[in-house]
Amino acid sequence: MKPPKPKMKIKIVYKLFAFFSVVLLIFMLIINSFFYFFFNKQTIELHRNDLKEKVVTISNTISLFLQNDVPEKEPPPYLRIHHHHMDMMGQDMRIPPSMDPTIPYYKALGYYIKLLNNMDKCDIWIINNNRQFLISNNHFHHSVQYNELPPGGVQVINKALKGNIVVANSFSSVLGTPSTTAAAPIKDSNGKFVGAVLMHAPINQLNSSIFYAIKLLIISSLFAMLISLPASLFLSYYCTEPLRKMKKLALSIADGNYNSKTNINQSDEIGDLADSLDQMAIRLDKAAQESGRLDKARRIFTANVSHELRTPVTVLRASLEALTSGVIKDETKQKEYHQQMLNETIYLERLVNDMLELSKLQNPDFKIEMSKFILNDLVNDAARSMRPFAAAKQIQLKTNIEIPPVKFLGDYGRLRQMLMIVLDNAIKFSQQNNEIKIHLYDKDSIAYLQIADNGCGISPQILTHIFDRFHKVNNERNKKGTGLGLAIAKHIAERHDITIKVDSILDKGTTFTFAFTNIKRV
Asked: Which pTM value belongs to this model?
């Protein structure tokens, strides 16, 4: 069976580039749509208002002609487009006195309308209040009769004859092309509505203008998008650059190099992620160092345990071989061998117990029994328990407690064990007929306990290692020691937030100082 082909990975930079491109395209379409809608609406509205203003101007101009009577003869043939009516809007009309009297009214009006038609490319109709066309120069289609008008067109004319100014699209079917019509009433010299002016403007030119504007907008949008695509590609690379740096850091961490950093300084989510990766690298580096330290300590511990077990096991084996082989027949010698085997067994038992004790204290999940007790009683109890061992060497334990009873929260049994370990070492390394001072005092709300002896002291080279596991002085005084006592004492102190300070002068003595915080007076 063939393994499945790996899926082609699409880099996020290309995804961002595609996203930006699609967003730009959608944005362009939305902008163009809004522009077309509002531009088309605004353009048509301006066109209608402009047409409305023009037809009002024409109607006002024609009203000026209605000052006096006109000659009683028919209009010239070139002005009679549809109907041959002598009277206009039911009244006789003449041209104003300012105009040449030899020019008939209709001729002057015809020239005026013709001039407007040529200027605006529009079609202008004049109709009287009897619904009779007086002028209808139709540039779009053919001559129009009143009975050919659509219902909408008739309504426009009726509204205009009643004095309303109307703008509509009701004459497109008659004119044969889409157009806008504006109608305005004509007043005579008495202010009576005697006719109407209709001005038709084709909207094909308007549509051409709108189409041209949209065309320019689309071209501009495409040009802008063409320019923005390289910018979006650059932006995509810029945005993904921190991700590439974080990937490089992750691969470096995977290879075990925990000193690498992303070197990303951004005040955003990516910056937070980069900072988290840097913190992870720092913590992994510390964890690796700690793991190395623990591994080294484990190897040292194993070597120390092997060394400590080798001697008693060797003695036990040699003694048992001598006894079982029958070489030792003397009962006195046999008792000596048995006693030696017992001593080595006791030492092994102490070693195993100390190792178990230290293992418990080093386990953070191991809970110690906390309770409130009087610190003064703890010091007196530990001193009282060690006095018989001190008396065996003619050593005096002098206790000096300078503070009133104070309460302390802790494990009474463990703290008593800690003090007894230090007192046992003080007795062990002190000469006969000597003394050990136990001094309890307070300073700045902290209780200090000093245990000082006048023994052999500790050299500066050894002083820094006295709390290490299996560290012990191999001399006659310490032949029964396991090298775990002070390590146990230190862990008990750490579990109670007690600091230990050791001062020692070679051949003059050693002083252990314990600082108890969080004490409360009774």
From this structure: 0.44
